[in-house]
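User: Sequence in, structure out. Go.
Assistant: Echoing your sequence, followed by the structure tokens.
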Amino acid sequence: MGTQQRSSLIAFLKKCRARLSPAEAGLPNPSRRRTPGLRREDVAALAGVSVTWYTWLEQGRDIQVSADVLERVCATLRMSSDEREYLFTLVQHRAAPLRSTHIEDVSTTHRRMLDALGVPAVMMTARWDVLAWNDLTKIFRDYGALPRDRRNLLRILLVEDETYQKDSDQYEAMARRVLSKFRVDYSQTPDNVSFEELIAELSAKSSMFRRLWNSPEVTSRSEGVGHYPHLGGVSFTHSSYVPEGSPTLRLVIYVPHDDQSAQKVTAWRAKAGAGPVH
């Protein structure tokens, strides 16, 4: 850990201790304390670690810190999601593990951004549940017409939308591509019951999923070209992005792959009363 990072860690943890009173932490509140907030001894006791270990952590010493212990420190100090991310970055030099029980929401800003895009786009979770979309996604399907619990893109692609299964070679190529990304998303959210339920359902309903799920293929980037003969031969290049501050969300954008596809999307937009594709 560099000198500046160590200084930042010391100042950050001291600030987190100082703002939390013993009463707020469920401790007796003695009438005489020289400094406000919790002492190092208090944090150590509440987090289930030794005073020496916590002192070394707060001093930025070179010690082994497990994610489980760091999570207990975050909980003890009542850290926000942003503060938790910051502490993990300072101490472990990586993003904090995704919380399997965290339910992400799509902000008003995200929804306005989706509506402002001139191409189809959706916002989905790491489990591939589609939470928000713009009107141009009706080129593919009308998410608004689907029940909320049936808007899982992986289930749609592999089981429910039979148009993707008409060409067996393209269907398998698509399945390999999406599952190589889904394996990574699954690995980042351990002990998530909803993931396990989805995997069990896909195993029961899709022979393609059963055959490919245990493949070692993985990719951390969701991008590629999709061809849609049932839409008149239109092709889209898609890529995904993680909105800053929302690690469990994925923004997936579909851009026309060629001039012919761009012209068709422009026609669809004109029919819907929107402007041309840029």
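User: And one key feature?
Assistant: The radius of gyration is 24 Å.
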